[in-house]
Amino acid sequence: MTPAALDPTDPEGAIKATVDRVSNWGRWGDDDVRGTMNYLDADVRRAAAGLVRTGESFSLSQRFDGDGPQKGWRRRTNPVHTMLDTGTDAVAGIQGFPHGIGGADDVIAMPLQCSTQWDGLGHIFDRGRAWNGRPADQVVTSLGDGVTGIETVAEVIAGRGVLLDVGRAVGEDGELPDGFAITEEHLRATIAAQGPSSEIRRGDIVLVRTGQLTRVRRGLAAGDGWGDYAGGAAPGLSFTTADWLHGSEIAAIATDTWGFEVRPNEFDVAFQPLHQVAIPHIGLFLGEMWDLDALAEACASDGRYDVWLTAAPLPITGAVGSPVNPIAVR
Amino acid sequence: MTPAALDPTDPEGAIKATVDRVSNWGRWGDDDVRGTMNYLDADVRRAAAGLVRTGESFSLSQRFDGDGPQKGWRRRTNPVHTMLDTGTDAVAGIQGFPHGIGGADDVIAMPLQCSTQWDGLGHIFDRGRAWNGRPADQVVTSLGDGVTGIETVAEVIAGRGVLLDVGRAVGEDGELPDGFAITEEHLRATIAAQGPSSEIRRGDIVLVRTGQLTRVRRGLAAGDGWGDYAGGAAPGLSFTTADWLHGSEIAAIATDTWGFEVRPNEFDVAFQPLHQVAIPHIGLFLGEMWDLDALAEACASDGRYDVWLTAAPLPITGAVGSPVNPIAVR
Amino acid sequence: MTPAALDPTDPEGAIKATVDRVSNWGRWGDDDVRGTMNYLDADVRRAAAGLVRTGESFSLSQRFDGDGPQKGWRRRTNPVHTMLDTGTDAVAGIQGFPHGIGGADDVIAMPLQCSTQWDGLGHIFDRGRAWNGRPADQVVTSLGDGVTGIETVAEVIAGRGVLLDVGRAVGEDGELPDGFAITEEHLRATIAAQGPSSEIRRGDIVLVRTGQLTRVRRGLAAGDGWGDYAGGAAPGLSFTTADWLHGSEIAAIATDTWGFEVRPNEFDVAFQPLHQVAIPHIGLFLGEMWDLDALAEACASDGRYDVWLTAAPLPITGAVGSPVNPIAVR
Amino acid sequence: MTPAALDPTDPEGAIKATVDRVSNWGRWGDDDVRGTMNYLDADVRRAAAGLVRTGESFSLSQRFDGDGPQKGWRRRTNPVHTMLDTGTDAVAGIQGFPHGIGGADDVIAMPLQCSTQWDGLGHIFDRGRAWNGRPADQVVTSLGDGVTGIETVAEVIAGRGVLLDVGRAVGEDGELPDGFAITEEHLRATIAAQGPSSEIRRGDIVLVRTGQLTRVRRGLAAGDGWGDYAGGAAPGLSFTTADWLHGSEIAAIATDTWGFEVRPNEFDVAFQPLHQVAIPHIGLFLGEMWDLDALAEACASDGRYDVWLTAAPLPITGAVGSPVNPIAVR
């Protein structure tokens, strides 16, 4: 299916037809809570460890910062980090500790989706159903996700990461324009351009660089602020990649954009339709707002695009997502 | 120096004398912000990646949970995780999204030291001085740690982890009693008992299991609650291990206890005196409240105690510590 | 109805029968969002202003403090108050402001029900129905209370307050024991003992002192902590007072206890059954954890038990309750 | 002193000279923690209660809302209100309560200065000194304001409020333009225009309406957003009113603007210089972001500008300010 084949007036029809092709419900049993993370097993990890050659490490995380991109939409704010104790207090002599010790502690309040993060399986529903077909209201209540909370994959997400630098391979000057829909053809073209280290295998964590973050950073440096990085127009995956996401048997996929899929979405009236297929039906973990730029430079310099990647969510009981600092080593 | 050699009435004297022997101030230049993380370089990582044999992975993190051990001391509370959107809302049809998509988002408010965490270099001061000799009031203010914030080591902490299961090697039934001071001799005895995979090398991340968490978990299972896990009596490193911590040139050390060092502390009137040496003077990163039990079982089963370990802090700008989900792969 | 008449095995039956007698659904129209606050009108206020004679003022609020009574049950924690800027920072010269100005700002994170508070009309439901018969899932979602949010009574709650010091009138040494169920007879006996200033009129805000807080404070002073003040056994209103609460046409009622009604509740298996009648059916505003001791002393000293009372909730959009600092002037 | 007399290049000089004239340090003893709230005594309250004639009540509070004016400057964000339990959960049958009761609870995280608020005496310092001459670092630390925390005036702030509708009396169409400095002459002209009910007396709470909020609200209604209401240009009190603020012996003063004083400030390089005099030296309580529009309409309609006003801060231990819902009754 190509974007041209999408009927922009009928997201419901496209979603239903796609779901019929790509659903993984029941694939790992009725009790499954891990979805495509089932692909990421010890064998995958053992093989991936061999990718470490120089030992260089890269953080794929943006900063968790009060000056971040969030604008309060749906109450997604930037983190508020405050201190419980400080060095100024210690020097002022007010801490009351013995033998000259002083200390600083801190507190944070933040949406779990405020910066670099994983979407867990409880993050998105399709017509009232969560991953594996469960009724959404029996999965995620005000008490959190009692079934597929992010803690259920606490130890899993370490394996082979593959950078697909679509911005560099397909875009101009290394960047895709906002609104650019990345199709399966673009993904294949990128793999072809990058060479064999980019071949996608079962259990992989795919990292798609669009270059949007690079562009937004230039704006920040120029004093323009974040613009609409958090929710506005952006390059991203086409709805039509659902079949590839399913058939490739990847464990997860992450982008350098706020919302993973192309925005505006490819239907006249729509909101994140690829999420609606990918999370509750494919059981796929999505990473958003990852910073792939430094890694992309390194990969381009020597043509090796696969890395050992650890992207461990905080095991917050019942969370539908998690902030994460993914570490790539190559 | 042995615990017997400590004068319990003179923590100031012991601290000063120890600092004279172990200070790393200036070792990596006046501008250094990474302390012992300087030991953890690409070479260390490259070698450590070879430790992955089966691909088994272990999360060394406790849950971030409202029912955690914190009791509010110094305003350290358990995390409060709340939902911005839920599955019950989605099913109730009140979310207003098109084409049947529904979603759940969440928020957390927590001290950065509430559960499994890293102490950053701005966490502890000695007589008004922070790491590398900087005046503490020019490092950590209400705005956070403007110099050694945890984000400065965002990409570093992946390398060789070595479990020293002191509880198993030295304790009874795998556990050290509360108040047990682990000395250098105990560390060496553990290494000897465990065999060559436990040899400590420059740049290592040392994981000390005391067994206290195992014991506390039994209490939890029996309905006794957390007791005083968060701040009460505990086994832990003796103040006298400062020289070993310095001389071993390790990058970091973590324990399964709240406070790393033995409690009650080994002086008549004291509060975490080993912190006062280790963090501002050695520049050592300390991990606390790590869950080492599952890894310890695996290590004991085949006698391999070294692992590939990634323990990436969230790069919260200016934070003096960070929650972390450390992942060991072996 | 007396407590003796309650069948402890049948809370459902008692609730249904009581609801049939006391429901105010529709009384103020289908669109009503204020319940019994409709009684508190300008006429009531005008008359009540005449109660001010000496001009003495009393805060009926407990402190909002990290050392408060909450223990985390249902994620009700004590407030966490942190600073964004401090005097120590100002003196350390790190704030960067001109002409010698320095400042301090602060932040709070707290459950709205953590200390002295109002229960709003969205706080409790009966078999899926909120105040005035609305389906609860169309009133209070993750977005808050979209219909009866506490902001809808932002300007209303100023009028006549009447202290019923049941602890003094009925108890021993001014206190009722935990588990003591205050019946209509006890309320009438208290009014009779206190004299005509205690007569209850339409639109009144009734303040019921049990003396439990006085007792808990003694425990705090003795180092015993809060005990089970937040949710444990307590004196409080009997379920059988529902008819009096309805027939008296009061605007609101508050107690010095955590939970307004007697605990343990008067049925074998129950949770706050009087709430289930009072809030969704009578439309009554309940105040909890009020501090009535200082006012009680003053009232006892001169026999005047009615005051001018302002108890203004913070108009937090969509809140189902609010912290409040009620001010009595007499 | 008039604005013309101010040397715009010398805020330090102007501040020092003004402080020499208006300081109240020591006026109420060395231990004083209430500043001008000392003026608001029982006599003032007793007299003010007589102002209630119709019993109409007005909330002078803006909503505490996630869509508020804050933009994150100095980490002042809008409140984040989340639910611990909801009606959708109750209807979904997942709450686990007996006999059909369901409930909703909520949580808030907010800066204390995010919306309608009081500045407490610990909010501003002058050259390292807080109210009454205390060293700021011995008053406000990371632990909060240990001396003049807002809880120290928990019961005080009920008395006579006087609306000075400067926007209506002096402005065009009821509004002063941004940057308009309100001088003592403007205050006197407003009093004269409004008549004898506006006469200012010792212990009064003065309410200055500039009309800026009215203007901003039109913008909001037109879809323009809040603009720079939180910190941008605004009408407000001239620095030169310091003498009037002192000599009038008022207890407090509040405006409908973010920052009380005119912005931009009246010096070339300055930040809130009138705060620097008013809070630490006069000991004056400042109210900001109050909503005076509805009250102003009522006052204009019958020419009575004085009201019974209760503006009770939440007694948050150690807070340097507090959100407040002021209630005027007339």
From TrEMBL, chains A, B, C, D:
Q: Name one GO biological process term.
A: L-tryptophan catabolic process to kynurenine
Q: What molecular functions are annotated in GO for this chain?
A: arylformamidase activity
Tell me where the transmembrane regions lie.
none
- Top-rank taxon, per record: Bacteria
Pfam families, per the entry: Cyclase
- Any idea what this protein is called? Putative cyclase
Organism of origin: Mumia flava
Q: Taxonomic classification, please?
A: Bacteria, Bacillati, Actinomycetota, Actinomycetes, Propionibacteriales
